[in-house]
């Protein structure tokens, strides 16, 4: 039971650093959208956001990880394959189908992409906690 406050703090830190990485993701998608289709811009921006998220998570969230940077980044990228799929399906689905169906045209790209980025938060946390940044069992 003594681990619960630590886990809560870790999850809050994950949300804070992930929120910053999500902001980098969305802002970079806006930039990429100037010369790429929305679908490709979401993927390109995800890469930028993923690197940002890795650096922040390693530095501020999973500090007691016993895995090397090289191995943890590879695992981080693998966990993010699942997350990018979720992000892309939600973002593109909302932009091309759901939001037009609801008559929403103002800020359609921003709403769709922001929602898509938020969807994999919980699955990403547990994937990164148990796969990307394993901690020693002291």
What does this structure look like?
80% of the residues lie in helices and 0% in strands. It is mainly alpha-helical and 138 residues long. The longest helix has 33 residues, at 69-101. The radius of gyration is 16 Å and the shape is elongated. The mean pLDDT is 92.
Keywords for this entry:
138 residues; mainly alpha; 80% helix; elongated
Computed over alpha carbons, the radius of gyration is 16 Å
Oligomer: single chain
Largest sheet: none
Low-confidence stretches: none
Number of E-type strands = 0
Helix and strand arrangement:
Elements: H1 3-32, H2 38-61, H3 69-101, H4 108-118, H5 121-132
Quick summary of this structure?
The chain has 138 residues and is an all-alpha fold. It contains 5 helices and no strands. Helix content is 80%, strand content 0%.
